[in-house]
TrEMBL record:
InterPro entries on file: Metallo-B-lactamas (IPR001279), ODP_dom (IPR045761), RibonucZ/Hydroxyglut_hydro (IPR036866)
Source species of the chain: Leptothrix cholodnii (strain ATCC 51168 / LMG 8142 / SP-6)
Highest taxon in the source lineage: Bacteria
SUPFAM superfamilies (alphabetical): Metallo-hydrolase/oxidoreductase
Domain Metallo-beta-lactamase: 28-218
Pfam families per UniProt: ODP (PF19583)
Signal peptide: none
Name of protein: Beta-lactamase domain protein
């Protein structure tokens, strides 16, 4: 069963958090369905383990031919490895960083992506979904070189990709205070985020938005006080290249 993140009128935001639970060898990942009236979008549709249930979940709200967009924060397999099947079952375009635009066809059979891949410029863009829109926000190097988060003004949700991700715990239950949750986030962020400089630039950008919830691609959403607590924590985090030294670049014995 999906988690309802927001529901107002014809606007519905759903998170699918357990579509790969029968495959414990695979990393847990969240997929998101945006419903705006009789159309919508999928954010980070995931791999083949998630496809069937996500497709059925979408059909409960609108037919496949009404899907407006497939949005990918970056090009990792747990983000978009199921693309070949989505290209077959819908006519929706896929939006991804222009850096990854020419890599995307490698996920699909020849010809399936022709004319259907829209490269998001580095500065980001606004993407129309029915009567609403999503904003692709620059989140480069958090953790991919070309990386975007998706801001949904209607719901106040920032779909944050790998930033804010946690390992373990219950992905279905929002975290409202960061204390006690940091231990599930810190190892991942120190290894996968590139530097404190980039995190500070990100924090400066998102502080301008009225964020009600930060929803990552792994683990539990952040809500309430945890939103600002996470922004404060992230902007001061040493990570990635900040932690590298000569010992990390030595020839193995």
């Amino acid at each position: 069963m999906p988690v309802e993140l927001f529901h107002q009128g014809g606007n519905l935001r759903l998170m699918f958090s357990d579509l790969q639970q029968s495959h414990p060898e695979a990393v847990q990942a969240n997929q998101f369905l945006i419903v705006n009236g009789d159309t919508g979008a999928i954010i980070d549709p995931g791999g083949n383990l998630a496809y069937n249930d996500l497709y059925v979940g979408m059909m409960r709200h609108f037919p496949p031919q009404h899907l407006s967009a497939i949005l990918a924060s970056h090009a990792d397999p747990d983000i978009i490895a199921s693309l070949d099947r989505w290209m077959t079952s819908t006519a929706a375009p896929v939006y991804i960083s222009s850096i990854w635009e020419r890599f995307i066809p490698h996920f699909c059979k020849p010809g399936k992506t022709e004319g259907r891949v829209i490269g998001i410029p580095d500065r980001g863009m606004r993407i129309r979904i029915g009567r609403g829109e999503l904003v692709a926000l620059p989140a480069h190097f958090l953790h991919a070189e070309g990386n975007f988060q998706f801001w949904d003004e209607a719901s106040g949700i920032l779909f944050s990709g790998d930033l804010g991700a946690s390992i373990g715990g219950n992905a279905r239950v929002p975290v409202t205070h960061l204390a006690g949750h940091i231990e599930r986030m810190e190892p991942f962020h120190r290894r996968f985020m590139v530097s404190q400089k980039i995190l500070r630039l990100w924090a400066q950008m998102v502080r301008t938005l009225p964020i009600r919830m930060i929803v990552p691609q792994h683990g539990a959403p952040l809500a309430g006080a945890a939103v600002q607590e996470f922004i404060d924590w992230a902007q001061d985090l040493s990570c990635g290249v900040d932690l590298m030294n000569a010992s990390h670049y030595s020839v193995p014995h």
